[in-house]
Please model this.
Amino acid sequence: MGRVYNFSAGPAVLPEEVLREAAEEMLDYRGTGMSVMEMSHRSKPFQEIIDTAEADIRELMNIPDNYKVLFIQGGASMQFAMIPMNLMKNGVADYIVTGQFAKKAYKEATKYGKANVIASSEDQTFSYIPDCSDLPVSVDADYVYICENNTIYGTKYKELPNTKGKPLVADVSSCFLSEPVDVEKYGLIYGGVQKNVGPAGMAIVIIREDLIREEVYPGTPSMLTYKIHADAGSLYNTPPSYSIYICGKVFRWLKKQGGLSAMKERNEKKAKLLYDYLDESRLFQSNVNPKDRSMMNVTFVTGDSGLDAKFIKEAKAAGLESLKGHRSVGGMRASIYNAMPVEGVEALVAFMKKFEEENL
Model:
């Protein structure tokens, strides 16, 4: 069997060009006689890999000099604890809960201080983004936290919350590098890389220098202290070196595609193809408030769980992989990240039309 169109939410599709390049370098990285997997993280070739990766993501996102870029093991879920441990100076933080991951982050924060839910969309199964223009932000809040794109529910903030001067902390795991971003609007922006950037096992944290503190939550392990990682240039311990290497290749691939403005244009085109069909379909429907729809994760249902299961099974047989929705919500989900070609979305829509004709 050849390559399938992989709609998995993460670990997810990577650019074929990147995979081929990595395959060519697997046994001998640029004349070193070894794989990057085997290479000392203290070696000159690896230092070049991590330096180039950081320079390229800085260029792609136009990251100001007063922000550090950290490559940290553990994925996004480890950041749920790391953020309050490092940022809760007053012991207070405000959370906007728009999905399961924001909810988990909030619950984790309650272990380290006073965490407040200042807005939520749980009342309608996280199918919309609440109005965040005038929220009851706590006077002594150390930060306001959001999950910007909600992978499970298919929603995305189109406007950032008014944090009333407090630093904004955002989990961008599933919309990372999908469109241009104004980093200066955030105190800390981070994401697990396995959705839109690279292999699982790492998060990239972009943090404003004034938020990197020595006085962290008592008992915080060295490995969970931003300052330790920042001072060591993400090399305090053996880093997730292969993940950094692949992410670096993805950054170069993105630059080659024309950068984040070009990716936004391409991603909007892919999402429009799918949403336009869903809006006219008599069988499939999207349950997400149209103005809050994600470009990256498109959720849909038939309204009949048996038919949903039939669709997923037949789609898989047709080479359309991992379309099953998250176990907590059911239905279907097509994750159409940067590396998903437009042909993949076209193939999905064609299959959905055929399925609709055969099952109505």
About this structure: Residues 79 and 203 are 8 Å apart (CA to CA). The chain has two domains: 16-256, 258-359. DSSP finds nine helices and 13 strands in the chain.
